[in-house]
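Subject: Predicted fold for aldehyde dehydrogenase (NAD(+)), 516 residues

User T.R. writes:
Posting the sequence so we have a shared reference for the thread.
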Amino acid sequence: MATEPYKMWMGGLEGEGQAEPLAIEDPSTGEIFAHCHAASPEDVNTAIKAAHAVFKSGIWSKAPRHVRADTLDRIADLLTANLPRLIDLEVRQTGRAVREMKAQVPTLTKWFKYYASLIRVEERSVMPTVGKLHNWIERVPLGVVGLVTPFNHPMLIAVKKIAPALAAGNSVVLKPSELTPLTSLELGKLFKLAGLPDGVFWVVPGEGGSTGKALVGHGLVRKVDVTGGTAAGRAIGGIVGGNLGRFTAELGGKAPLVVFDSTEIELAVNGIAFGAFVASGQTCVAATRIIVQNSVLEPLVKRLGEKAKSIERRMGSPQNMECMMGPLISAKQLLNVRILVDDAVDAGAKLLTGGQRLSGPSPLDNTDFSSGYFYPPTILLSGPQTRITATRIWKEEAFGPVIVVVGFDTEAEALALANDSDFGLGAAIWTKDLSQAFRVSEGIEAGICWVNTHHRNDASSPWGGVKESGVGSENGVDAYNAYTTTKSTIINYAAPEEGLVSDDWFREGAGEVRYG
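User M.O. replies:
I've generated the structure tokens; pasting them so everyone works from the same file.
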């Protein structure tokens, strides 16, 4: 157990916060294993003002592109060198299985390398003009940007925002989830070692209602990028809009996964299990609504139930490499999942697997399930009198390892079920029919659509939703552009004698004059 509390990252130095310290819990044991200083609104104001002053100084915002790119590359190298301890800390604070973190965390270097490459090759546009004018466009940083990240992928989601923000030359103030702030603080130390100037990057842990509100509502913050729930996103968007700031939000999801009868059943079952149960279902793109052609519904459900029970048998300590799935993040999250599942069962839905909090010793490694927030893979089906699509869990984001399965007969019915949601972040289709894949993917209302796979993510590929799943997107050129504004420079290179003829607006007489 840590003897000293983690401190805030104040632009290059560790600092103590004025707010009540955060207690960081290991969700697999219920143990408070660390404490962390938290930022008060006054601390946030100090950070933003200092970050703004550093931005205005130009030490990073006006640094040559190759300098910024080289720094991002060094960050990627330092991440690689520090992977073991970062993975251990990520597992401890999130409860995510170590096998997941060993697969995910090493990929974070891709974001820094991608945006380093992007700014090295970025070209200026030259606009067509009339007359002897030269008009070029360049992208310039916005200023101080505020980033708000959730508990489920602390480093991944932070890095997806930080890399393009820094590449563009902004100063960054990050507020991580109060449940999982520790690895974000470690990033600050690595950035300093990589040569990022002091004052460019800040981490202000704290509660959303105080620390987060102070960050997103500050007049000097020119852009806010948030990943979180839809209700929080709406509230933050209203605040940012009042300051005429930029806003990007990746919010809730209720991803459909459509299985057609041409699909290889075993492949589809493996894809469903991954899409639904990775990260204990705590992802915005989790495959939670499984829509299966009736001709293959029975064998698929049977095999899916067997897969879910196999995963449950191999749940245990997240630090065990043989553990397939860890706990939910908190008692609050566990309660939310239980309420939605119980509501569906009370309404008549059929419970195929799971449905109860785990207790007693783990069959895998004797981990005491009762001490943590373990919930097994859970599958819900329509009951004799109840169609699962009428229950709350069909509509509401559970953020846990729970899926609902429904059948369909026609492609049109499958599309209607897939689009029967207020959300539109991720979706997936499983089919061997290429024409069908094109038709259905085109008709699905989602910002990301996978065919015969799920959760694929790359620094170059846009990641964002439609409807209530958010505004704008992460990744790719668009994300970089969203951290900049365009500046148009127009130079008149006409000779003085030409200007005397054409540019005397108020000359004597009624001759023609130019406009524009």
